[in-house]
Amino acid sequence: MTFRRFLFFFTLALVFVMAARLPLDSDLFWHLRAGEQTLADARPLTVDVFSHTRAGETWVNHSWLSQVWLYLTWKMGGWFALSLWTGALAALGMGFIYLCMDDAPLLLRPFVIVFGALVAAPVWVARPQLTSLVLFAFLLWYLRRWQQGRRAPLWALPPLFVLWSNLHGGYPLGLMLIGVVLGGALIERILGRDALPWERWRSLAVAGLLGWLVVAINPNTWHMWLIPFQTVGMTTLQQYISEWASPDFHDFSQQPFIWLLLGTMMAMGFSRRRTSGADALGVAMFAYLGLTARRNFGPFALITMPVLARHLGDVLGQIFERLPKEAQTRLEAAAQTLNAEPARRESVFRVGVLILLWGIAIFKGYAVTLPVQVESALEENYPAVAVAWIQENQPPGNLFNEYNWGGYLIWDLRAYPVAVDGRTDLYGDEILTQYVQVQSAQDGWAHTLDDWGVNLVLVSPNTPLTAALAKSGWQQAYADEVATVWIR
Question: How far apart are CA 416 and CA 398, in angstroms?
Fold first, then answer.
């Protein structure tokens, strides 16, 4: 095995280790339930059957195909299989980005990948949006091949967008990426540089337009065209839902984003390489998206890593040129040794290292999903014990629940439709604003519960709502450290 190939798979194994985790994301549960229901009905869900606030309303379920795959994965291997699924998709996406670094020093690529992984890791969760990141990385690599004149026919783009729109509603990321290439070429032309020929520019523009049109080849038809406008227009998302909020750089876990942004800017500034219009536009556009919503950390990391690698590689080249001649000779000899055809013993050793590392990665996925780990995490983060009490006692009435618990309740408390869950595009500003009103015990909260016919409330203890319920004659029927149950 050559060192180049060994380094590629070694890097992907590191990514897999970082991404394989206990996949108990709050939205995963309703995705699993939707996938189960889709298979049971033999058709995608296009109306809401999980809530009482939007029951029977049209639901633009853009992730139906991913939901089926997630449910089948869970059905075959439980939480362990979903952990491996998360790690595998994260590694696959980073693999395409690694291939985009073909003009960067070989030894620099793993460091940039791991650095970028620190930024993208918060969005590596067992949800359909992970497939969007993989397709985004694939399209970035594919367009790079096309720009280099290598085999990458544009007729493949429309089928890609058909698949994308059925896996996840994040297809606008792909259209934006095409727009970055087209916009970058225009910038190059305005500046009088060598730019993409007009014939190829028009071909890519037509392929992008067709890609946008064919996303309607979907059970939701033309409603898919409206997804980006509906999402952007929801003010409640950024105000109350953490993944849609701007990053908080006082939180250390979110700081790698700003490190990557500033590091790339410095590398571009000190590099002798000319920054292309597409690189500058891509970093700027996706940095803006990341600064407005932390769920966009992933696309920003993917598009920025190759830019950082090529410019940082040039900076390191400048440092190399300033080294003493003897040091340069030794480094060049070491590089030649690494790139030489390995002896059989060395090749076997490299294969053994990879087998060991990938074994560790898979074992990590197994260890974090042991039943005791799953049960402990559920009881710590979700109202698992309170749900067991409700199932045993069957109190009557519509349910009001905390937003972050909605998906779990859809999966585990099936007899009680939820008030809200992570399907923000279904509820819209109207329902989500009313939810915030009730949860915060703002004026009119009791009237909203009356309108929704709520007789059962499941919320965290010591919140404004629990105090208001106690003063309004509601009975606390159950309480623990995680959740309280109130009956009218």
Answer: 7
pLDDT > 80? residue 278:
yes
> Rounded CA gap, 198 and 277, in Å?
16
The helix/strand/coil state of 120 is: helix
In which residue are the tokens 């359909």 written? 128
Tens digits of per-residue pLDDT, 73-129?
999 999 999 999 999 999 999 999 999 999 999 999 999 999 999 999 988 999 999
DSSP H stretches of helix in 100-226: 108-120, 129-147, 157-167, 172-190, 198-214
Q: Parallel, antiparallel, or unpaired: how do β-strands 475-479 and 484-487 relate?
A: antiparallel
- Residue 374 near residue 29 (C-beta atoms within 8 A): no
The full length of the chain comes to 488
> Residues with Cβ < 8 Å from 124, sequence gap 6 or more?
18, 19, 21, 86, 89, 90, 130, 298
172 near 226, Cβ under 8 Å? no
Instruction: Looking at 341-423, list the stretches that DSSP marks H as alpha helix, in order from N- to C-terminal side.
Output: 344-367, 371-381, 384-393, 406-412
CA separation (Å) from 144 to 132, 149, 150, 331? 18, 9, 9, 30
- What's the token pair of residue 170? 């994040």
User: Left if phi > 0, otherwise alpha if psi is -120 to 50, otherwise beta: which for 149?
Assistant: left
Q: Identify whether the C-beta of residue 404 lies closer than 8 Å to the C-beta of residue 432.
A: no
Q: Decide if 20 contacts 80 (C-beta within 8 A).
A: no
pTM: 0.94
**Helices 344-367 & 3-19, crossing angle to 10 degrees?**
10
Which residue is associated with the tokens 């390191």? 316
Helix, strand, coil percent content, the chain, rounded in steps of 5: 70, 5, 25
End-to-end Cα separation, the chain, in angstroms: 69
